[in-house]
Amino acid sequence: MYAIIRDGGRQFKVELGTEIQIDYRENLEGGAEFVFDDVLACRTDKELLIGQPTLDVVVKGVVAESLTKGPKLYIQKFRRRKTLRRRTGHRQKYVTIKVTQIGEEKIPETKAEAVPEESK
Predict the structure, then answer these.
(1) Which of 4, 67, 93, 117 would you call most buried, defined as having the most Cβ atoms within 10 angstroms of its Cβ?
(2) 3-class state of residue 57 by DSSP
(3) Torsion, CA 104, CA 3, CA 24, CA 32, rounded to 10
(4) What digits encode the pLDDT tens for the residues 10-32?
């Protein structure tokens, strides 16, 4: 059983127990539960479900590590025959999530009931 989910403009193929790194979110701490709503496809033992564009299925995970850092990337700007030489760096922050459950149905959101207009 596996699912293909979308998060942060990227797609991940996840199975039970898979650890993935997603972009850092401040409100996530170690052991917190995280839910992926954008499930594009889900393969069960019997069938393959493909969403158009998404399915009514969620994938749940637990935060394994609250903060990890990616590799250091250097950006250099250079102008020839000038004295402009600039070097900066960037290090992306990630949250590591371990997938614990695949294939639970979404709970429909309850909307406020419309109040019927009175007849005049």
Answers:
(1) 4
(2) strand
(3) 30
(4) 999 999 999 999 999 888 888 88
